[in-house]
Design a protein that fits this description.
The structure is a single chain. By secondary structure, the chain is of the alpha/beta class. It is built from 5 helices and 12 strands. The strands form 3 sheets. An 8-stranded mixed beta sheet has the order 6-3-2-1-7-10-11-12. A two-stranded antiparallel sheet has the order 4-5. 31% of the residues are buried. It comes from Rheinheimera riviphila. Belongs to the 5-formyltetrahydrofolate cyclo-ligase family.
């Protein structure tokens, strides 16, 4: 599958982002069930070929929604390897922010206000950002420079704004279908760039690894 090409009109950045978000979401949602299933399998394969990822023990991911690249096979693969997996939860006290909680096969789940499943809050299972080695981020569009555009809520950007100053800093890895790659993502000042993007077909390494 070839990367999507998108020529942006000369308009304000918010309009550009909204137009791009609508286009790529439609392309992503248009993938067949068979294509989604194969992409999820290929994602596991891509991870297994990356030594900088396979050596990690504490990995945060997400549960897929809205046509996002399915992470379920990857999560199950990591469990089989005795890795610790974490999922984002809407922050209980800071609206617009996330916290990360360990996710196991028997973790009680609830539906948050967006209708997305997340672990039922258990403060004893929360993990601080400096203790998470990698955070796999969902996204709508990305480019080869490592710029990411999400759904527009800003939850990850707010939460990770200071992550680059953590010692050690978590590796920020975007997970996406190949058709979500564009020539250039319109960037806002608050956008947090990615260290790495993994698709079922390639690994994009725009920035030097921090580990």
């Amino acid at each position: 599958m070839q990367p999507c090409s998108w020529s942006l009109p000369l308009s304000d950045i918010s309009t550009k982002r909204n137009q791009l978000r609508q286009l790529i979401r439609q392309r992503r949602q248009g993938l067949s069930a068979e294509q989604q299933q194969q992409a999820a399998i290929d994602l596991v394969r891509q991870f297994s070929t990356q030594p900088q990822l396979t050596k990690l023990q504490h990995i945060a991911l997400y549960l897929s929604n809205d046509g996002e690249l399915d992470t379920d096979p990857l999560i199950k693969s990591l469990w089989q390897q005795k890795k610790s997996v974490y999922l984002p939860i809407l922050h209980p006290h800071k609206p617009g922010f996330l916290v990360f909680q360990q996710y196991r096969p028997d973790t009680p789940m609830i539906s948050n206000k967006f209708g997305i499943l997340e672990p039922e809050l258990d403060p004893t299972q929360l993990k601080a950002l400096p203790e998470i080695e990698m955070i796999g981020l969902p996204l709508v569009a990305f480019d080869k420079q490592g710029n990411r555009m999400g759904m527009g809520g800003g939850f990850y950007d707010r939460t990770l704004a200071n992550a680059v100053f953590c010692q050690p800093a978590p590796l920020l890895v975007g997970l996406a279908h190949q058709c979500q790659q564009v020539e250039q993502v319109p960037v806002e000042s608050w956008d947090v760039p990615l260290n790495l993007v993994v698709t079922p077909e390639q690994v994009v390494t725009p920035l030097a690894f921090s580990r």
